[in-house]
Amino acid sequence: MMERPVRKHVRLKHYDYNQNGGYFITICTRGRIPLFREGDRLSAAGMIARACAEEISNHFPEIVVDLYCIMPDHVHFLFMAVGTPYMASVRSNPTISKVVQQYKAAVSRRIGRPVWQRSFYDHIIRNPTDLEETRRYIAQNPLKRMNSNG
């Protein structure tokens, strides 16, 4: 009998992912298959990923998509949760996991098959310098890739 690998928990244990703040998210395709780009252009699947990214704030008004970048085999997001901090009588922010889950489901549904790895990577934005560095990284990521491929 083959032993299943132990999954690493990638979320911070005691962090409330429904609080206001910035979140740098990376979601990868299953097997890191380069599904979203054909050369320097978005593929049909990439256009679906972009359309779904543009719709996130329609479904989650508490989430602002500050910036995103669609790479061949992954997508980067900078989400800003700007809703009302949790109070029992007021609707709170959705968790970042819920937003990512809905995005991944929408893209897979429109493409017609599952396309994502399980889970996602996150980094909580800690201060204004971190925010600017993250914005710069997301904006420059496609350029770095093009330059490294010749």
Brief overview, please?
This protein is an alpha+beta fold. Helix content is about 35%, strand content about 20%.
What key attributes describe this structure?
Alpha-Beta Plaits; 4-stranded antiparallel sheet; two-stranded antiparallel ribbon; 3 helices; disordered C terminus
Structure notes:
This protein has three helices and six strands; from the N terminus they run βββαββαβα. With 150 residues, the chain is an alpha+beta fold. A four-stranded antiparallel sheet has the order 4-5-1-6, sandwiched between helices. Helix 1 packs antiparallel against helix 2 (96-111). The longest helix is centred in the C-terminal third of the chain and has 21 residues, at 128-148. The protein is globular and about 35 Å long. The model is unreliable at 146-150 (pLDDT under 50).
How is this fold's topology laid out?
Blueprint: E1 21-28, E2 37-38, E3 41-42, H1 44-59, E4 63-70, E5 74-81, H2 96-111, E6 121-124, H3 128-148
Antiparallel strand pairs: 1-5, 1-6, 2-3, 4-5
Helix pairs in contact: 1-2
Uncertain runs are 146-150
Q: In whole angstroms, how far apart are the ends?
A: 45 Å
Query: Radius of gyration from the CA trace?
Result: 16 Å
Per DSSP, what share of the residues sits in E-state strands of 2 or more residues?
15-25%
| Helix percent band | 25-40%
Biggest sheet record: 4 strands, antiparallel
Work out the number of β strands. 6
Tally of individual helices: 3
How are the strands of the largest sheet arranged?
4-5-1-6
Structural category is alpha+beta
